[in-house]
Amino acid sequence: MNKKVTAMDVARLAGVSQSSVSRAFSKSASISNKKRKMILDAAEKLGYQPNAIARGLITNQSRIIGIVMRDVQNPFYPEVLEKFYSRLSEEGYQIMFINSQNDEVQEYEVSQLIEYSVEGVIITDALLTSAAVQKFNRNGISVVLFNRYISDSMSNAVICNNFSAGQRIGQYLLDTGHRQLGFISGPSNTSTSLERSRGFIDTLQKHGIESIPMEDGGFTYEGGFAAAEKLMKHHAKIDALFCANDVMAFGAMDYLNTAGYRIPEDISVIGFDNVKMADWSPYALTTWQQPVDEMIQQAVKLMLDDINGQQEEPEMNFVDGCLIERASVKNRR
Amino acid sequence: MNKKVTAMDVARLAGVSQSSVSRAFSKSASISNKKRKMILDAAEKLGYQPNAIARGLITNQSRIIGIVMRDVQNPFYPEVLEKFYSRLSEEGYQIMFINSQNDEVQEYEVSQLIEYSVEGVIITDALLTSAAVQKFNRNGISVVLFNRYISDSMSNAVICNNFSAGQRIGQYLLDTGHRQLGFISGPSNTSTSLERSRGFIDTLQKHGIESIPMEDGGFTYEGGFAAAEKLMKHHAKIDALFCANDVMAFGAMDYLNTAGYRIPEDISVIGFDNVKMADWSPYALTTWQQPVDEMIQQAVKLMLDDINGQQEEPEMNFVDGCLIERASVKNRR
DNA sequence: CTTTAAAATGTAAACGCTTAACTCTTAAAA
DNA sequence: TTTTAAGAGTTAAGCGTTTACATTTTAAAG
Known about the structure:
The structure is a homodimer. In chain A, 43% of the residues lie in helices and 17% in strands. Chain A contains 12 helices and 12 strands. The mean pLDDT of chain A is 94. Chain A has a 6-stranded parallel beta sheet, sandwiched between helices. In chain A, α1 crosses α2 (18-24), α2 (18-24) crosses α3 and α10 (221-234) packs across α11 (246-258). In chain A, α5 (76-90) links the parallel β1 and β2. Chains A and B meet through α4, α5, β2, α6 and α7 of A and α4, α5, β2, α6 and α7 of B. The structure holds a DNA duplex.
């Protein structure tokens, strides 16, 4: 382990003061071009890199954003992670990655983030207690929820309008002539699943459909598979299945196929997320596309505005998305 | 943004010196239980958390490990990320996540890691120039390559024995009566793909099979699809296809199915990675399982040993893995 | 009731940086 | 020429910790 080279070393080599070295590395400092060049050359020669830890300490700005993510194996989230990375990178932020092990982000995970003085935290598919929110707030850490919200909502959030998406999916299925609809939900403590189902049910009821068989598929492939099985065993006449996310839809489709149902001839399936695989030929899943790019754009904007104090009140932004039609839904008219 | 509460604040409230507060939070410090409790209570009341940035500065230990990952959308890697997170978390490390945008990890990505004084860097599916390795070395940063290695190899690495896996896959295909074999490779600058193909070819040649049609599928679904198409157009008699990773195998299978080939009756397909989806019914892919848990275990051990100076020479650990038989290969005997 | 060692606490010096305050040049304005 | 001001560079004060060292307290031993 070689000694770290510090600004002082560079200063000595270049024959200037250590503070000049600091200035040479600062965009907005007044320093002559000649001297800056000298210093930069010396730095180059020594392989000097400013120490972000020391800088963070004095400026009180770590330039680190925490990202909390739970179900990394759901292909929707790697995509989200990738895009957050790219946007935040552009803004000069680093990412501290937290893979939340529980539904609810744990006390110690919150503490870790705080200890490292992250400037902000993005929560994707995990739940945040209001205690946790307060803890972040007390420490001046901005929080933005991605596709989640919590009732007491003192936090920024950007959310796909799950309720209206649920409605429109219901409407679409009705319009294409389906009458026996089933729903495979995610965990009942996630606002995403809840809202999607509320919208869906809302529309169906308006059209006089009261009985809507449901099963919890826990947002996983296996869950979707099992839920479809239960559903079909008890309600053989179902002609369309709405799954609260794509992975569950894949599970459901695989169950249906192995059980001898033809998709979409016997039963239509519709998903949510428009994950890459939805386009793969064995599935060709009709699904709801969340405008991920836009959502991330907004989430980062919210985050930065909050960090830079250009924000008074927490904001909740809703975005819509649209239906992507593929081959898993049949027009029964 | 509330003022951060510091050890000094706690010290004042508890009526002790600031250094005692520090000691109260250190496992191995000599401090009376009574006083420790007092301090911890005061800290609790104020919501104090030690500042890891300041600690890092003085101890010269950030307790951050960088993870560099490129193709996050290949389901193999989220799994890897999750497991690394969990292991490193146990050891009290945080993760700084870098989503490398290019095949080769870029100069500025290296710099970022160095600026934040990460103690070590784990490189998964990205390439590291020896210049980059040197830069890390000069800064006393441990590097371990996960499933990659580079020729000048001054770095630790843990690697699935891709060569022998390739051999055994070749043997398996031969044993099951295949004679016309094709290969879909990953990018030609990845040691993983290269070794797998070398082993595969090696075995086939030993059995007198000289002509082995190949296409580069770039380790992606689309690439696998296109590669299979090209391969079949020019070599209609192929009866088995070895794909250097699972996602390409999925692409290839989807092409084959849409083109009217039956798997495995007309053509067998074999993958590599044993990603979750390989078990899904539309694919039921026979594939090579890398012992991911073991590999990560070893990688982390290498990392920690290196960080703690308990290591003289860089080590390269090879692990084997095993074939997982599903339904995509037919015994033609 | 000393004496002595050990344990607990306090004091103060770093760690590597940024930045306010100050000094010294240099050149333009008077 | 003198005055003034802007520009360039330096000095030094932190940021919130850990930790070596000094000092005080406590407990054990004589």
